Amino acid sequence: MTGTFQDQDDIRAAQEALARGHNPLVAGGVTRWEDEVGIGRIINRRIIELEPLPTPAQVLSDYQLDQASRKLVVSSREAIRDTLYGRDDRLLVIVGPCSIHDPKAALDYAQRLAGVQGELGKDLLIVMRVYFEKPRTTVGWKGLINDPDIDGSHHIQKGLLLARRILLDVLRAGLPAATEFLEPTSPQFISDAISWGAIGARNTESQVHRQLASGLSMPVGFKNATDGDVGVAVDSCFTSAQQHTFFGINHEGRASAVQTLGNPDCHLVLRGSSHGPNCDPESVRQAMERVRQEMPSNSAAAHGLIIDASHGNSGKDEVRQAQLVEQLAQRIGQGEPGITGLMMESFIEGGNQPAAPLDQLVYGRSITDRCISWPRTEQLLQNLAAAVRARRQLA
Ligand SMILES: O=C[C@H](O)[C@H](O)COP(=O)(O)O
Ligand SMILES: C=C(OP(=O)(O)O)C(=O)O
């Protein structure tokens, strides 16, 4: 399909035509309701527009990682692996906004966090959450790639390029980046800049996402399901470690049969559930027992897991999230086994605000889940670093 609906009236007319059983045919840039023979189309009856995007090859060459950033991606992926397999005794801390919506605030946050990484880098391996794709429970803003202007205009091409520019900025600030992979083809545009990937609670049982993880170049954490099921995420670690062949796109954007090697660096992320938290010592012990039944003893997953202090573990309340991080720091300091890393949702300002175009927003405040403020985040990172030092003493 090459044409587009011309405006909102056109779209409304098409919807009315559909309701009457007619067919909005789009050809040569003009919307028509029925084809020449009057029987209507049998495909794309509910597609308003297919707008071609630039190819991954084009986007990657327009916005290239410089040599220092490439080195950072390689070395941080390796360092993350070392923490996951227990070869590095630092705590992996994945911290940053629930979602990125403002390039300026993202860079501001990255620079603050890079300062802390410089100070605490012997104890913490800090990776910034740079999340561009938001999975929604029902509907809502789907993130900067999908709707960069936060106004429902859905300029995905603009969003993709902006996301990539932000990633380049974060890397230049000296921080590795973590993200959730949601759309199966979007990794081709950004994954070279990512050091840790997540598959979220809403997709953890999805074959499409497990296949995707099997071909990703970085370690990937699978969240437990929103209902609290940990077993599906363990199944994901197992499945993604295998080879797969599936539908995807290549760097020229062409539909391709993708064959993967399998990703041995997948692991569990406990994020709580609609029934409450699942990160108390007994839940961690049970989750690890479950992992060890399915995964080989030398896998990343069998060594330890990550606790997401946000989401179901704190009811998305930033005050409870911060309290939980303090409790986790205590437990880590006392040498509790199994906790390889933590995830925190944090931004410059605490809390959140409704999504709206940038000029209507408070600077540095989340437009998705509530986040811990920057000053509180700094304190918590200090606590976590002290806990790692205490754990080291015990060892
Ligand atoms: O991390 C972000 C949110 O928890 C996730 O996108 C779901 O949000 P929603 O329940 O508000 O849609
Ligand atoms: C959406 C997220 O988490 P979850 O999949 O656990 O809800 C997230 O970490 O942004």
TrEMBL record:
Catalytic activity: D-erythrose 4-phosphate + phosphoenolpyruvate + H2O = 7-phospho-2-dehydro-3-deoxy-D-arabino-heptonate + phosphate
UniProtKB keywords: Amino-acid biosynthesis, Aromatic amino acid biosynthesis, Transferase
The protein's annotated pathway: Metabolic intermediate biosynthesis; chorismate biosynthesis; chorismate from D-erythrose 4-phosphate and phosphoenolpyruvate: step 1/7
UniProt superkingdom: Bacteria
Domain DAHP synthetase I/KDSA: 82-381
Entry EC number(s): 2.5.1.54
Enzyme class: transferase
InterPro entries recorded: Aldolase_TIM, DAHP1/KDSA, DAHP_synth_1
Role: Stereospecific condensation of phosphoenolpyruvate (PEP) and D-erythrose-4-phosphate (E4P) giving rise to 3-deoxy-D-arabino-heptulosonate-7-phosphate (DAHP).
Membership in a protein family: Belongs to the class-I DAHP synthase family.
Name by which UniProt lists this protein: Phospho-2-dehydro-3-deoxyheptonate aldolase
Organism: Bombiscardovia nodaiensis
